[in-house]
Amino acid sequence: MKLIIDDDNCIGCGICASVCIRDNIIIVEGVALETGSNCFECGHCMAICKNNAINLKLFKNQEYRIIDHDFKDIPVEYVDLLRLYKQRRSIRWFKNKKIDKLTFDKLFEGAYYSPSAQNEQDVEFVVLDEKTDEFLDLVYDIIKVEEDQFFRIKEFGEYLKDKSTKKYNPLLWGGKQIILTFSSDKTSAVIANTRVELLAYSLGLGGFYSLFLLKADEIDHIRLMKFFPQINPEKHLYSSFIIGYPKIKFRRTIPHKKINVSYQ
What we know:
By secondary structure, this protein is α+β, with helices and mostly antiparallel strands. It has helices spanning about 15-20, 45-50, 80-85, 100-110, 130-145, 150-160, 185-200, 210-220, 220-225; strands at about 5, 25-30, 30-35, 55, 125-130, 175-185, 205-210, 235-245.
């Protein structure tokens, strides 16, 4: 059993049972009862209960909050959110100012509420700062086997040997800090990091994704994970986001290729 149901507060309205996708709740004699039907602790029942009658045992000692939006149908205006999407661009040039831990904590609160496959909630983050150079040395040593295929990897190797040969790091550009996202499910990792990224713009931050860093996991996962002993080695590095305070500001949106959408 995964739920704590307060019989005194429960009014037997049945709303909790109606949103349970595992048929784990039934109403018997005016009170909600748990059936033990494969609950995966999504929390829908807890979140929708009007009388605070249901809690998850898993989080019984943790605080929750009431969503203060007067239960409006639209929590954020379409035009406001679309404006953010339009303004979002990859940032590769940053100020000489590092992000502090308090600011990172604010970012990861967005990931805290991120959905995950089968509600596993197994996404983990690593913020690279002091060990960035050491990590990049390892990455190059792994991905250099493909430098004949990708000129950027070759440039990266040349930069590591002699930093005076390039104005910017070919993989990080002006970035100094990296958010790495690990999970057993790729989609969960990408969604979580996307939430972190979009929240970053509200704090005056920006960044870009690096696929070349992910190649290290694709080529030699076991060796890469030895750099992160605190992470379950069965998880993979699915997102790498270089982040910082933007040094530039883009003035306009640009056209994009048309997205094909079909309805069947």
